[in-house]
Design a protein that fits this description.
Elements: H1 2-10, H2 26-29, E1 62-63, H3 69-80, H4 93-111, H5 120-145, H6 153-164, H7 172-184, H8 198-203, H9 207-215, H10 217-228, H11 235-255, H12 257-270, H13 278-282, H14 311-316, H15 325-331, H16 333-336, H17 345-354, E2 364-365, H18 379-382
Parallel strand pairs: 1-2
Length: 385
């Protein structure tokens, strides 16, 4: 504190402090929230402490003219590290994990078949065991969507339908098309159904609205795609629906309504205020004044979620399976270690709800696919300066 007093004296005794003594705490003096993201290898552009940009306008999304960033980074990495192609391909371990998690869910439902649904024991099991297991199955389906469990397309689709069973609601075939569009058209309005709608921005742009969204986000992700961009049903859609309905009917007949409710409660908790559900918000919401559209998370919850936290790596190379995403990051540290990432999925949910600088508005959107960053006009030219 002696140095601080001396610095104050040097400023003429007006009480102005050099906040560098506090590791960049001037953001607090400006009324901003603490820096949320971290940088593994700080650079001159971003030291991991300061804010690279000002707060975003909470009344609208961030509109970009450039193309999504993963295509250009993928080309750059392939140019420098052509050996990355050796990491691509299917992962045989996935099918065995799916089989194990499905078995765990069915066994737990069987054991709870006589337990009252609103009892503490039932809800605790549905949250801790069921929420974690069904989140794992959500992300197994995500992995299988990229045809990374088997070499062939048909076996992958059948495995996804099997993984869908404990979730209780048929969705895996519908998810596949929407998710592939999410990769190809990241941030594109009317195509990328991962983006919040204008109605969500108008209705949920406050603490209570964000708490509601985070609690019931499973319903937003389930209903929004059909409202924004309806799909044409195929034979695979009908197969997914038929198998799921038959499974639910047999489950209800032989194990009872409470066992089926356990599976449905599990799916709800998996997409609600659950630590593993933090990835929904962590992946593509904007933070710290950055226009970065995708964020990774390298913490321990990746062990339960098919390394989905390696999300920049996944978007750059969707054909690299979950077991090899850490190797991809290690292969190209100059590309990934300088990108801000999230230190905690649990705190993501808390910060999303409470932080005034983050909300439904904190998403990047573009009309069309945009242009490569090297070809995009400058802001000064666009605004006529």
């Amino acid at each position: 504190m002696l140095e601080v007093r001396e610095k104050t004296a040097q400023d003429g005794g007006k009480g102005k402090l050099d906040f560098s003594y506090f590791g960049g705490a001037e953001s607090l003096a400006e009324g901003r929230s603490p820096r949320r993201t971290v940088v593994e290898s700080p650079s001159a552009k971003d030291d991991g402490k300061q804010y690279p940009g000002p707060p975003q306008d909470p009344n609208d999304f961030l509109w970009l003219m450039t193309e999504e960033p993963h295509r250009s980074r993928r080309h750059a990495i392939l140019k420098v590290h052509p050996e990355v192609v050796k990491l691509m391909g299917h992962e045989p371990l996935t099918k065995w994990i799916v089989l194990g998690v499905v078995a765990i869910q069915l066994a737990t439902a069987y054991l709870l078949r006589s337990t009252r649904p609103l009892s503490f024991q039932f809800l605790l099991c549905a949250y801790l065991i069921g929420g974690t297991a069904n989140q794992n199955l959500f992300l197994a389906i995500h992995e299988i969507t990229h045809n990374l469990a088997f070499k062939g397309i048909k076996p992958n689709k059948l495995l996804a339908i099997f993984a869908n069973l404990p979730i209780g609601i048929p969705y895996c075939v519908t998810f596949k098309k929407y998710h592939i569009e999410h990769h190809k058209n990241l941030g594109e309005e009317g195509v990328d159904t991962d983006l919040p709608t204008q109605l969500e921005l108008l209705c949920l742009n406050n603490v209570l609205g964000k708490a509601f969204f985070a609690t019931f986000q499973i319903f937003f992700y389930a209903l929004r795609p059909g409202l924004v961009r309806a799909q044409r049903l195929t034979g695979w859609h009908f197969l997914n629906i038929a198998i799921q309905l038959i499974f639910d009917y047999l489950f209800l007949q032989y194990l009872g309504v409470r066992a089926l409710l356990y599976l449905l409660f599990s799916s709800f908790f998996a997409g609600s205020l659950h630590p593993c559900a933090g990835h929904f918000i962590a992946e593509h919401y904007l933070w710290d004044g950055l226009d970065q559209e995708t964020y990774s998370y390298y913490g321990p919850l990746n062990t339960l979620t098919y390394n989905v936290g390696y999300h920049n790596e996944h978007h750059d190379f969707p054909s690299v399976p979950w077991t090899r995403l850490p190797a991809l990051k290690k292969l190209a540290p100059e590309f990934y270690d300088t990108l801000p990432s999230h230190p905690s999925w649990t705190m993501i949910i808390v910060n999303f709800i409470l932080d005034k600088e983050v909300g439904i508005f904190a998403r990047a959107k573009r009309r069309g696919r945009g242009t490569p960053a090297s070809q995009a006009p400058s802001v000064d030219k666009v605004e006529g300066r």
